[in-house]
Design a protein that fits this description.
The structure is a single chain. The protein has 5 helices and 8 strands. By secondary structure, it is an alpha+beta fold. It has a single domain, classed as Alpha-Beta Complex (Cyclic Phosphodiesterase, Chain: A). Strand 3 and strand 4 form a beta hairpin. Helix 2 packs across helix 3.
Length: 192
């Protein structure tokens, strides 16, 4: 990628978006607890912030090249986790499993976009997750997590693409998928 180091924006992201047919239970939780439910579709960030809009076509080619050597895989969303942020906010999230295909894909993408390393800078490194909500108190987040765990049916889906999502600079504008790049093209000789 020829994008200069440091050139990245919160208006774009490289992600895995689950298929819409599995969104309903995720969105029910997010509508209650995620202040950004209208801005973001359910997703797993791979690289965020990502490259500026003007570089997305070039980025798509690099992502397609990286994705082509990764076989499509299945994920399950069954376990919950927390991030505690510096200012005391708590993010509740679902952990996608298995983690290894996501970690390998992330690693290969990071080689092409080393300046977009924010997702790898967290304590413990890259932690694939699908955010469900934000809480101000840890005990509130635990109560919600415990309620969800007691009745959660695992969500399973096939990952055949990496997506680039983008939004305009207007605060309320939602992200939209602007590119879907297939996994495994170099392995199978065809798009999934």
């Amino acid at each position: 990628m020829s994008s200069p180091p440091g050139k990245k924006t919160h208006l774009t992201s490289c992600v895995i978006v689950p298929p819409e047919e599995v969104w309903d239970p995720i969105q029910r939780v997010r509508r209650l607890h995620d202040p950004h439910v209208r801005r973001w579709m359910p997703h797993i960030n791979l690289l965020y912030p990502f490259v500026p809009h003007a570089r997305l076509d070039e980025a798509a080619r690099d992502i397609a090249d990286a994705a082509s050597v990764h076989a499509p895989f299945d994920l399950e969303l069954a376990e919950f986790g927390f991030f505690v942020h510096r200012k005391g906010r708590i993010t509740l999230w679902l952990e996608p499993r298995p983690v290894l295909p996501l970690e390998r894909l992330h690693s290969d993408l990071l080689e092409r976009f080393p300046h977009c390393d924010d997702t790898a800078r967290h304590q413990g490194g890259f932690t694939p997750h699908l955010s469900l909500g934000v809480f101000l108190r840890r005990n509130e987040a635990r109560i919600v997590r415990d309620e969800l765990e007691s009745g959660w049916d695992p969500i399973r889906f096939h990952v055949g693409h990496v997506q680039i999502i983008a939004r305009s600079g207007f605060e309320k504008d939602p992200f939209e998928v602007v590119a879907r790049l297939p996994l495994g093209k170099a392995l199978s000789g065809r798009s999934t």
